[in-house]
Structure formats: C-alpha cells, structure tokens
Amino acid sequence: MELDKQQPSDLKQILNRLRAMIDSNDNQFQTRRFDAFGIEALRVEYDQLTKIWTIHEHREVRQFQFDDIDLVAIEIYDVLHDFKLIF
Description:
alpha+beta; Signal recognition particle alu RNA binding heterodimer, srp9/1; 4-stranded antiparallel beta sheet; 38% helix; 32% strand
C-alpha cells in the first residue's frame, strides 16, 4: 500500500486493510506490507487465534506487538509519515 500524501483518509485506508486481516479466514496468520514511494516501510502480521498484531518496522529494525487495532493503525501511520520525511 502506498500513501504518497498523508491525509486523514490515509488512517481510514490503513484501518480498512487491518479489518480485512481480521475478516480473512484463509490462514491463522495474516500478513500485509505497507510502503511509501514503492519501498516497503513495514510489515504487519495478525495472529487470528491470539488476536495479537506484530509490526516489523524495517528502517529502525524493530518490532512491536499490540492487541488493539486502533493502536496498530496509529503506529503504521506514524511509521509511514516518518519514513517519508527521509525523502
């Protein structure tokens, strides 16, 4: 997912993608990648059994775990925003 300009609707797009991960029933583990300018900034995994979200941030080489979709969306938004400040 590429978000060229951060706008309030970007957060809504992020939430829509995260909700799709919850709704998917093809695999226990759901993975989505988020990028900016065609470069992957982070990867998000969702474990449907434990309901735990894991964010793998590439630039800082760190990961976070959350149990709340809103916090995941905000973290993704922030990482993408910070990533774009580099360019």
